[in-house]
Amino acid sequence: MSLSASYSNATYRLYDDKADFHKKAQSIAVGLTVGSWTDLPEAAKEQMQKHLGQVVSVDVSESSNPGERYADIEIAYPDANFSRDIPAFLVTAFGKLSMDGRIKLIDIRPSADFLSAFPGPKFGVQGIRDLLGVHDRPLVMSIFKSVIGQELPNLREQFLQQALGGVDLIKDDEILFENPLSPLEKRVEACMSAAREAEQATGQKLLYFTNLTGSTFQLKDNAKRAIAAGANGLLFNVLAYGFDALAELAADPDISVPIAAHPSLAGALYPSMHHGISAPLLLGKLMRIAGADLSLFPSPYGSVVMPKAENLAVKEALLTPSLPQKPAMPVPSAGIHPGLVPLIMGDFGPEVVVNAGGGVHGHPGGPAAGGRAFRQAVDAVKTGSSLVQYAERHKELKQAIELWGIRTS
Amino acid sequence: MSLSASYSNATYRLYDDKADFHKKAQSIAVGLTVGSWTDLPEAAKEQMQKHLGQVVSVDVSESSNPGERYADIEIAYPDANFSRDIPAFLVTAFGKLSMDGRIKLIDIRPSADFLSAFPGPKFGVQGIRDLLGVHDRPLVMSIFKSVIGQELPNLREQFLQQALGGVDLIKDDEILFENPLSPLEKRVEACMSAAREAEQATGQKLLYFTNLTGSTFQLKDNAKRAIAAGANGLLFNVLAYGFDALAELAADPDISVPIAAHPSLAGALYPSMHHGISAPLLLGKLMRIAGADLSLFPSPYGSVVMPKAENLAVKEALLTPSLPQKPAMPVPSAGIHPGLVPLIMGDFGPEVVVNAGGGVHGHPGGPAAGGRAFRQAVDAVKTGSSLVQYAERHKELKQAIELWGIRTS
Ligand SMILES: [Mg+2]
Ligand SMILES: [Mg+2]
């Protein structure tokens, strides 16, 4: 195999009780590139060689139990075959192939040349920390509780109460769309005025991620309208629009605020063992390459579950120095309360957003107390205290752990 | 349940050995709309009632075998909660929920009001037939064999040979992207000149579906460039860009040619029993609402298989008069040869595109003979002949059935 030109690789897991996986790998490498090979005349082979896919590896896991035999197959696709956009590579590597039996796309390794087309996150982990002026602890994010059908003054008050607890980031609910009660610009203005009010009280800078929605070809305009109205962050349901929409938004110099990627619809793609796209690729590597500054994904702690190993692989994909794009902030979400903070910080390390909805709003002292309880939990871990110790002198944390307990594993 | 306002429904299949499915249905209806209900004060309830989701039905299929107990749950979502675009509805109905256990989105029933925002296919079945002047038989489509790495004269010759057999439609390979050898406008010009040449010879009008690719926000421009260069059809990898991109392209009055939706990446979404989106919804109803004039999907006859019942449900969704959008042409694809034509016409009825790649190019007499063999097979069925009978006086059909045989079930 001569790989003098540039190739981008894809790795698949294929389940099949009987297939000749080496033959299958060859048929993928040929079928998804030049179409046919052995019957080509020599002159044509010479010309087509640079477009021919290559089998990199075939790693068979034998089993005689029905349904358990599989192989991991890595194929190198010539960069000459596709344009420098994610749809082109995904369609090449997993377009037709996705429909060809029990096959899941588990990883990609795009070439340096392909990756160079993607500026990636404008801010990333460091940029978000710089915007907030917070460099020495995990960030805390709060999610609006109920937003549909709420008038602007209610939304503003909800924002303010969350903000007063000292959280760093507040995000819209991903199911809040353009609507007469809280249209985009008015919502941004109301929430950002609450953010300034809270900042006066807490001294804590705040980013508000307003939900970017609407028709595909209006997304850039909507983003710019939100920013013109004062938005300092955007939430985006990436999978409803495709990775390229995110990549184009992130690459636009006028979209000068961080983008948080919501995993909406991801459950249609990652959980099956036999089909779809693995979570670390879908919510980790692809989100980062496409330019998400933060990526939300189901935490291993709540009711919406992803196994912890998979969770940590998503995190790894977002943070690994092996990609040229800036690292993106991991935001494990769902089921988070202050009693989980030591565990989250243990599992994820320092670069993580502690993201809570019910854990803020359900606090007995209200959402401001909820935010404070999270900040106290973070401070406890940072200063080497146990939550129980720290709660002795911090009543919001005390109330939180009385209600939700402490989970250590 | 009072449904005086307008609601759009979604139906899910949930697998769970123990869950209280009725309780689960309630928690979906509340959780994905107003967030919480029982703890709301009465005044708030009055205001929020119109935003509250409603459980339409819970149909439990009991089983004590592990993994086999499931329920079909239909929820009505108030149209007041989302904008009139597919991302908004999908994110509402299956955004977060997609990650909540073993749950698959199996159908949607959007309200008349929601549907009225979608003009749907510009041409549809009747419009495509009118463009071609063919009203009395299934259409025949041929797919380029190998396109990557091919110079324009080669592509033109490939196009011409396919066209000379009398096929109605020719489509690009979905993995042909913008590239120096066959850039969009030059490719369109070369292929359309071959189409005119073939039309002189056969008297048969031809539609050429050129692959619409590139960055999301350039799609409209690219489509218009292709059309300005003479393209009379577009192929689009819908799932790589999202349904809204298709909807916006289809609604643009300047994109005045039919759009064929390619099912690229669909296998990441539909085949799992427990996750994703059902094929009839994904490749049938949603494609049609979004405006595909033709929808390709894996045939039940080839190696890329979808069970026949699912296939016919895709077809039904594309053709049923119960939607306001024009019917879209079903294009079952993969593994099609002339000996399958009676079976296809039996399974799908008259409104179907017989779509072949290898079945045209692999004909012993070459692709022109391959096209003729398909047209002969169609004519045989239309005139009530058996293929064997008809092949006695039609040598291309004879060669085809000698090579591939005849399949009757
Ligand atoms: Mg939410
Ligand atoms: Mg193809």
From TrEMBL, chains A, B:
<dbReference type="GO" id="GO:0043715">
    <property type="term" value="F:2,3-diketo-5-methylthiopentyl-1-phosphate enolase activity"/>
</dbReference>
<dbReference type="InterPro" id="IPR036376">
    <property type="entry name" value="RuBisCO_lsu_C_sf"/>
</dbReference>
<keyword id="KW-0028">Amino-acid biosynthesis</keyword>
<dbReference type="InterPro" id="IPR033966">
    <property type="entry name" value="RuBisCO"/>
</dbReference>
<dbReference type="InterPro" id="IPR000685">
    <property type="entry name" value="RuBisCO_lsu_C"/>
</dbReference>
<keyword id="KW-0486">Methionine biosynthesis</keyword>
<comment type="similarity">
    <text>Belongs to the RuBisCO large chain family.</text>
</comment>
<keyword id="KW-0479">Metal-binding</keyword>
<dbReference type="Pfam" id="PF00016">
    <property type="entry name" value="RuBisCO_large"/>
</dbReference>
<dbReference type="GO" id="GO:0015977">
    <property type="term" value="P:carbon fixation"/>
</dbReference>
<feature type="domain" description="Ribulose bisphosphate carboxylase large subunit ferrodoxin-like N-terminal">
    <location>
        <begin position="17"/>
        <end position="98"/>
    </location>
</feature>
<keyword id="KW-0413">Isomerase</keyword>
<dbReference type="InterPro" id="IPR017443">
    <property type="entry name" value="RuBisCO_lsu_fd_N"/>
</dbReference>
<feature type="domain" description="Ribulose bisphosphate carboxylase large subunit C-terminal">
    <location>
        <begin position="124"/>
        <end position="293"/>
    </location>
</feature>
<protein>
    <recommendedName>
        <fullName>2,3-diketo-5-methylthiopentyl-1-phosphate enolase</fullName>
        <ecNumber>5.3.2.5</ecNumber>
    </recommendedName>
</protein>
<keyword id="KW-0460">Magnesium</keyword>
<dbReference type="GO" id="GO:0019509">
    <property type="term" value="P:L-methionine salvage from methylthioadenosine"/>
</dbReference>
<dbReference type="GO" id="GO:0000287">
    <property type="term" value="F:magnesium ion binding"/>
</dbReference>
<dbReference type="InterPro" id="IPR017717">
    <property type="entry name" value="Diketo-Methiopentyl-P_enolase"/>
</dbReference>
<feature type="domain" description="Ribulose bisphosphate carboxylase large subunit C-terminal">
    <location>
        <begin position="326"/>
        <end position="404"/>
    </location>
</feature>
<dbReference type="Pfam" id="PF02788">
    <property type="entry name" value="RuBisCO_large_N"/>
</dbReference>
<dbReference type="GO" id="GO:0016984">
    <property type="term" value="F:ribulose-bisphosphate carboxylase activity"/>
</dbReference>
<dbReference type="InterPro" id="IPR036422">
    <property type="entry name" value="RuBisCO_lsu_N_sf"/>
</dbReference>
